[in-house]
Amino acid sequence: MKSQDSSSLIPSESALKPKLSRVRLWRTTAEALAKSNWWQMFLIAVGSASSIIYPHVPLVSFAAVAGNTLTRRKALISVMSIWFANQLYGFIIRQYPQTLESLTWGLVMGLGMLTVTWLVTALRPQFSRCNLQGYLLWLAISFIGGYAIYQGSIVLVAQWMGGHGFSSTILWKIFLRDLIWAMALFGVYGCTLLRHELANKAFPGQLKN
Questions:
Q1: Residue 41: phi, psi to the nearest 5?
Q2: Are the beta carbons of 25 and 193 closer than 8 angstroms?
Q3: CA distance 50 to 36
Q4: Whole-number Å distance between alpha carbons of 94 and 165
């Protein structure tokens, strides 16, 4: 048998170009969308409006998605805006009791959401910036990890304050609800990214905020 030329095992430059161009296009489009104002406003609007549907907004979902799709500054501003709207709606419309316990719960939720968002942006690996598969993998990791951190802090504070406990059934329902929200938000983001990617491919440099 003849030994195969080692040079034939190395992809040619022409074969690598399409892959590299797709990676650059994905990264350019995602970075442009991360800096855009309208995607940030969309997350804030949807997150704030969700207070009407749920007493407790799926904060982990918005923290994971915002941390994965926005710059750190925009992500932190977005999640705190959502938290503030939820608290404002709760105390004014739902008439939460104005007690130290209620205020403590509000602060714990806000700090938990802020912590998850910061960790997602700070620990975001390079592979999540290259393609859709990498993004999905990191989104799943950040969502599950964020849920564990957020709900873990809630459970610990509940035990410390001697309040109501959380059964596994309740925690599982909360997880499923947050998962559905994260998937829905990603679906909107994915469609938006694809639309901008196609537009940027047809008209390079024309992606707008």
A1: -65, -35
A2: no
A3: 22
A4: 22
Locate 28 and state its tokens. 């350019």
- Selected residue with higher pLDDT from 162 and 99: 99
| Residue 97 main-chain phi, psi, to 5 deg | -65, 130
The residues spanned by each domain of the chain are: 26-202
Phi, psi (deg, nearest 5) at residue 17: -55, -45
Q: Residue 104: how many CA atoms within 13 Å on its side-chain side?
A: 11
Q: What are phi and psi of 55, to 5 degrees?
A: -65, -35
How far is residue 152's CA from residue 148's CA, in Å, rounded to a whole number? 6
Angle between helices 37-53 and 168-202 (to 10 degrees): 150
Band of the pLDDT at 203, cuts 50, 70, 90? low
pLDDT score of 7 more than 60 = no
pLDDT, tens digit (0-9, with 9 covering 90-100), for 125-182: 888 877 778 888 999 999 999 999 999 888 888 787 776 667 788 889 989 999 999 9
Report d(CA 33, CA 21) in Å as an integer.
Answer: 18
Structure tokens at 119: 């960790």
Residue 103's Cβ-count burial label (10 Å; 0-12, 13-18, 19+) is middle
d(CA 73, CA 106) in angstroms, rounded, equals 22
- Measured CA to CA, the distance from residue 92 to residue 111 in angstroms comes to 21
The total number of residues shown for the chain amounts to 209
